[in-house]
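Input record (one chain):
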Amino acid sequence: MAVDAHKAQIKRHLSIHFGISFTKGITHTDVLNELKSLVDQNEIQTIQITEKECIHVVTVHDQNTKHTLLTRGINLINRYIRMVDVEQQVTNVTIKDAPCEMSDVTICGHLSKFGDVVQGSLDRGLIKDTNIETGTRYVQLTNCIPIIPTATKFGRFSVRMFADNNRTECPYCTRTDHPSYRCTNKPSRQNQAARKCYRCNSTTHTIKDCPHSEKLCYRCGKEGHIQRDCQTDDQEMYGDYVHDIQEGRDANKNDSFTEDNNSEELIVELNKTTETVFEQTKTLPSQPLKQ
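The corresponding structure, as predicted from the sequence alone:
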């Protein structure tokens, strides 16, 4: 997966954040007033609030101010709130579906395109109280890209990856501050599209209500063959020669059928001849053995 060079250059070394449910409704001014009790207002660059997830991000101008806020925290609505670095130095990545035979060196080699692999950080998942592996790998990265893809390929093998530190994108809203199963935009079961009929590929009914008795070709919509054998594909591939090619295929099938029939007839005749010879042998008078 190609990485946008401009996105990879984004650094948030001077940003910290905090978020908790009871802070919903708190304004920028409320946060600023609490911050001014700890640091100079001129050292604060931005205060961002996402009302939906109640996440508050504060960006400052220097490391000393950031360190003060990280170590001291702030008080809102008579509650102490700890602030956290937006960009932690280490990102933990979980890899699933990679073959168990794939070496640790190969895994680290593929992950190096997303960031710097921490030496000796790769661990293999084990079933509890056993030495049996689950196939899952756990790796730590530093200086990694802003968004780590949830699906990629290690050579010819498809794998899934999940990362902490707000590096995994939600498939429903493309945000990174929550897992997909907690997304408020996730469609409910009632709103999901109806299941397809696996016989005719229709979305208006299931297979038990399908009016067709045979499986339909998904390309031309006709019965009697599947998409792999559809002549529509041949028409696109071979153009004007498709009919000649199809006649040749049919002729080969007929020749094969004729040869099979001839072989069966020959076997029947041989069996009849063998039975006749056997019967004639039984009717011959027995000859005395010569002394």
